[in-house]
Amino acid sequence: MSFQLRRQEVLDGDRLKAMLDESPARAAQAIVAAAREGLVDAQALLGQILLDGNGITQDQPLALRWFDIAARQGHMMARNMLGRCHEHGWGCVADAAMAARHYRIAAEAGLDWAMYNYANLLATGRGVAEDQLQALELYRCAAELGHAKSMNLLGRYLEEGQVCPKDLQAAHGWYRRSAEGGDFRGQFSFAAVLADQGNIDEALQWLRRALSGGNLNFLRVASEALLGATDPQIRALAPAYAKRFAELEQVFISL
Q1: Cα 148–chain centre separation
Q2: DSSP letter at 7?
Q3: Residue 166: phi, psi to the nearest 5?
């Protein structure tokens, strides 16, 4: 059995995605069997489905163990997921310094998600000494590899001129690429650029896309920002963002 990993921070093989959707338990059985036979991609996948509880009873400590097994065999996304577990306390006590060590290993091996995650810690000084310049370079490397979330943050550094020369044209280009790459924050950033340029109709299109894909924290901040928009059509989207935030908050509370 072989697995083709997708370019996202979720370890589900393309061949198994349909099976996971249609018969999660059956897919989980196949993954468990392959993991026990020593297939490293399956070991990483097993960590992911244990973390998510997809087709198998959720068990975060066991997920951590399988990520560790795969990471020790050189699986860099599993190494990145070890970092995620340690950063957020999934199956272990949260430890940002330990998370940073895992992210750094995978980032140095060229994994874009690890570059992004390690850069986030460097930019905020969590688990490591704050280093905006190194964070910027990691975001840039990940963006050049096609990582949409890093594109948006690279755009922010360039727009603000933080530890680099200000370059609005380049910033706007990265926002556009991030938006087109599917990042909801990039879509919001690009919409702001379009609105400033007077292209309200296209800005509204990107804001609606960001609304449909945004997470809880983003929706809260964005709804407040939209209330201060000068254009009435853009300002009118604020209640929709607030409503979506309330819906997701209820889901989160019920978990």
Answers
A1: 9
A2: S
A3: -70, 135
Q: Give the pLDDT confidence score for residue 17 in this predicted structure.
A: 63
| CB-CB contact of 28 with 56 (8 Å) | yes
The half-sphere exposure of 124 on its side-chain side, counting CA atoms within 13 A, is 12
Residue with tokens 């853009």: 234
- Dihedral of alpha carbons 130, 151, 185, 114, sign: negative
Contact 188, 210 (CB under 8 A): yes
Q: Which two tokens stand for residue 12?
A: 């589900």
**Residues sharing a CB contact under 8 Å with residue 90, sequence separation 6 or more, in sequence order:** 51, 60, 63, 64, 84
Alpha carbon distances (Å) from 220 to 46, 227, 228, 235: 33, 11, 14, 14
Residue ranges in the chain modelled with pLDDT below 50:
1-8, 11
Residue 203, phi then psi, degrees to nearest 5 = -60, -40
102 and 71 Cβ atoms separated by less than 8 Å = yes
C-alpha to C-alpha distance for 98 and 4, rounded to whole angstroms: 28
Tokens of 37: 């036979």
